[in-house]
Design brief:
CATH class of one domain in chain A: Mainly Beta
Oligomer: homodimer
Number of strands of chain A: 8
Number of helices of chain A: 9
Helix content of chain A: 40-55%
Distance between the termini of chain A: 55 Å
Low-confidence stretches of chain A: none
Mean pLDDT of chain A: 91
Strand order of the largest sheet of chain A: 1-8-3-6
DNA sequence: CGCCGAGTTGAACTGAATCAAGAAACGTGG
DNA sequence: CCACGTTTCTTGATTCAGTTCAACTCGGCG
């Protein structure tokens, strides 16, 4: 944990909001960057965590563990993404999910007053925030639609299309977990596709 | 379409916000109630619809249609729920989904200025709005987790638990569509469960 | 080198889908 | 109130996508 840094968060906000560096700095000076090593947990199921994390560097995942001990990835969060456990941070309930670093990472730990502070400094912050939430909803809706209607192959293809960079950064078994298939199945899907594209 | 009414929307807001009847009336007087007959569409795939609908009476569904012509229900919206096509209403893109009445219904048609108007009248409106969005995200997340991890039976049980009233109001085939299984499978799941509970 | 975790491949299995009849339930009009 | 057609639900037989379990390959790394 250190005081300097959060450069990504700075530029994120200065591009989105009409705030100058000084104003942003005023708010951000209260917050610390937390460094995580690969595989380190930020939140564990059952815990309370009232922070929202902004990923400065690295890559995290949020996932659940079912009765059979299998992991299911709800989201990946690379640089410039926010990640939090909403049950816990917003509704003060124990977390249903785990959040873990998949690479050495740096996250800014934002607290519950952050939104209020930002809203005071920048009148448009609230709008940006709402837009972020709406975007996220759209994204989740789309994923539900995929899970309801698409085959393993179609889901994989959309993932490749949508997150080419994440594809390269996480083990294949985690992509499988995100898509809701077993690693073995994903391996076969890929084999199939390789055959097709090389066609002939 | 008529001018009077929106009584549910009125009480919804007066319970959520510190606004008196007069203030609420001032904003709502601009909006009309639209009556829908069973099966009528509010939005069709590919259309643009910039309204947000508040369900006063009745029940609607939002659904997609896949390449094979199968319908997949993304959400049900009974009384006191908001329903809209976010691509269309928020991001001015053609709608990817359909919205249709499953019963004779009445909805209040809110436009893009509604949020602004309400925010002016009530300082806490924005907070209520954000909370609504956060809740929705939580809900969608939970559904994704179910789709990733739970069997047809488990999904059905959670649906019964969560939406007992909707269960009674929609054909079983639509519950199946919401759960991501075929009507035939749902029928068999229910048969199984009936056997279990009556158990010897 | 030899271990070790990630990915692949194979063979058997299974939950759910598909296709095709029937049986209830429902509303409408006689 | 019953007969009728329509839609919804159930049931059965079969198929299939994806899972499971187990063995094997490969690439990195001490």
């Amino acid at each position: 944990m250190q005081r300097s840094g959060h450069s990504f968060l700075r530029s994120y906000f200065s591009s989105q909001l009409q705030m100058d560096e000084a104003q942003i700095g005023e708010v951000l000076s209260d917050y610390r960057v937390k460094r995580l090593t690969k595989d380190e947990f930020l939140v564990r199921e059952g815990e309370y965590c009232h922070h929202t994390f902004f990923v400065e560097q690295g890559l995290l995942r949020q996932f659940s563990i079912d009765e059979k001990g299998k992991e299911h990835i709800l989201m990946f969060a690379p640089e410039n993404w926010f990640i939090l456990d909403r049950e816990s941070a917003l509704f003060h309930q124990p977390s249903a999910y785990n959040i873990q670093a998949l690479e050495d990472s740096e996250v800014v730990m934002l607290d519950e007053q952050f939104v209020e502070k930002m809203s005071e400094k920048s009148p448009s912050f609230t709008q940006v925030n709402i837009r972020l939430l709406q975007n996220h909803i759209l994204h989740l809706q789309n994923r539900i639609n995929m899970l309801l209607s698409a085959s393993a192959e179609a889901r994989y293809l959309q993932f490749v299309e949508m997150y080419p960079n994440i594809l390269l950064r996480v083990p294949q078994s985690m992509v499988a977990s995100y898509l809701g298939v077993t690693p073995e199945s994903l391996s076969r899907v890929r084999k199939q596709l390789a055959g097709k594209s090389t066609g002939a």
